[in-house]
Amino acid sequence: MQSDFWHDRWQRNQIGFHQDAVSPMLAAHWEATGVSRDARVFVPLAGKSLDMAWLAARGHSILGVELSPIAVRDFFASQQLVPEVRATAYGQHHVAGPYELIVGDAFALDAEALADCHAVYDRAALIALPPGMRSAYLHELYTALPAGCRGLLVSLEYPQAQKDGPPFSVEEAEVRAGLQQHWQVDLLERRDILAEDGGSVGEGLSALHTVAYRLQRNPDPPL
């Protein structure tokens, strides 16, 4: 899946993945992650998610990365903020208030870029990626986060044969296989949302669950 796909979705305003309210799984389970209130939270494929404002209201600063400049522009407008913009090797950084959003490629971020992110929140990033990209995402980007990093991963599960992604179905076995070398993964909740899904995700599906995982990055082994 190429970046042009996502740029086109934002340009056409085909953003059914965007939620107009805070994610119920975030509100229900963030406290269980044990993330300190002053921790900086990394939000991959951030879009213009209102979840970032929810986290900021609880004392967190935010480092987000997003391909679409439209999404970043719209997020700051929704928060009535005018960001300062600077360029680095990672992309265009937009900074205002507790937010720093990079217009760039999440796969280009490295340990240096993420060194002060002691928390991660992933609601719509992993499930936005096809299988081949998910493996690289979990093995490379998540490995770049610092030891001790904590966070919340929210995924979807449904019969993939019944529908094309994105969002894709990501089963628990795949999450654990992709993270188990460097992360402790604890299942917090698997919630049936088929009946309550009011968007296009559940259309044509026989089952649809959202799943929340608590994450903690293991210490790096001694050299």
Would you write up a description of this structure?
The longest helix is centred in the middle third of the chain and has 11 residues, at 131-141. The protein has a 9-stranded mixed beta sheet, with helices on both faces. With 223 residues, the chain is α/β, with parallel strands linked by helices. 23% of the residues lie in helices and 27% in strands. The chain has a single domain, classed as Vaccinia Virus protein VP39 (Rossmann fold, 3-Layer(aba) Sandwich). It is built from 6 helices and 9 strands; from the N terminus they run H-H-E-H-E-H-E-E-E-E-H-E-H-E-E. Residues 14-18 have low confidence and may be disordered. The radius of gyration is 17 Å and the shape is globular. It has helices at residues 3-11, 24-29, 51-57, 69-78, 131-141, 172-179, and strands at 40-44, 61-66, 84-88, 91-96, 99-103, 117-122, 150-157, 183-192, 209-217.
Could you estimate the helical fraction of the residues in percent? 10-25%
CATH class: Alpha Beta
Arithmetic mean of pLDDT:
90
Which range does the strand content fall in?
25-35%
Number of domains: 1
How would you sum up the global shape? globular
Topology as a string of helices (H) and strands (E): HHEHEHEEEEHEHEE
Cα gyration radius (Å): 17 Å
Give the count of helical stretches.
6
What are the segments in which pLDDT stays under 50 over at least 5 consecutive residues? 14-18
In what order do the strands lie side by side in the largest sheet? 3-4-5-2-1-6-7-9-8
Distance between the termini: 37 Å
In the CATH hierarchy, what is the architecture at level 2?
3-Layer(aba) Sandwich
The fourth-level CATH homologous superfamily is Vaccinia Virus protein VP39
Question: Biggest β-sheet, characterized?
Answer: 9 strands, mixed
Number of strands: 9
CATH-defined topology: Rossmann fold
- The computed structural class is alpha/beta
